[in-house]
Design a protein that fits this description.
With 181 residues, the protein is of the alpha+beta class. Mean pLDDT is 75; it is low at 1-32. It has a domain at 74-180: Immunoglobulins (Immunoglobulin-like). A 4-stranded antiparallel beta sheet has the order 1-3-6-5, with no helix packed on it. A 4-stranded mixed beta sheet has the order 2-8-7-4, with no helix packed on it. The chain is 15% helix and 33% strand. The longest helix is centred in the first third of the chain and has 15 residues, at 2-16. The protein is rod-shaped and about 90 Å long.
């Protein structure tokens, strides 16, 4: 009876200080009494350069030039583009936008066009979507201005916004054009 009381106290103390109960308390084999002696022997032998002690494995270091906590920092060039006058029902020449990441590794990129006339600005030759950019990496998107023809002609000034996003960061370019008859 006394052995169980002592064992219960040891388990309670071990758990109370954040440790695990001894293996013998958990129903496993008894903890060897010479475990501390082996550790001391190893340290003494290593000091005498007779043998090496096993060291715990260190976590892998991130690749040079990157830090896991460094967020991506996207920018787009040009930051705005005027497509000029385009005949309704026709398309402008494609204009290239370059997206650059000057921060850490980005997540996967996506793009959206928004604004009142967003449907009149079409992305073509998209080399960014679904891609992650490393530090210093770039990708390109081409955009065309296409004011609609009849029955609802896209006459007059038009505007939109091209936004490229990755988790935690985004960049945008303003788009303008004029639908002419």
């Amino acid at each position: 009876m006394r052995r169980w009381t002592v064992l219960a106290i040891v388990v309670l103390l071990a758990v109370a200080v954040g440790g695990a109960p001894p293996a013998s308390a958990a129903g496993g084999a008894p903890v060897p009494q010479n475990a501390k002696k082996k550790k001391k022997k190893c340290k003494k032998a290593a000091a005498a350069k007779k043998k090496k002690c096993r060291k715990a494995k260190q976590p892998a270091k991130p690749p040079a030039g990157t830090t896991p906590s460094t967020p991506a920092n996207l920018s787009i060039n040009p930051a705005s583009k005027n497509f000029g006058m385009v005949t309704v029902g026709m398309a402008s020449a494609p204009q290239t936008f370059v997206v650059t990441n000057s921060g850490g590794q980005s997540g996967l990129l996506t793009f959206t066009t928004s604004g009142t006339d967003a449907a009149e600005f079409k992305v073509s030759n998209d080399l960014c979507s679904g891609r992650a950019l490393a530090t210093g990496g770039t990708c390109t998107l081409d955009v065309k201005f296409m004011p609609p023809g009849p029955p609802v002609p896209g006459l007059g000034p038009k505007s939109g916004v091209l936004t490229v996003e990755a988790p935690g960061t985004s960049t945008a370019a303003t788009l303008t054009g004029f639908g002419s008859p």
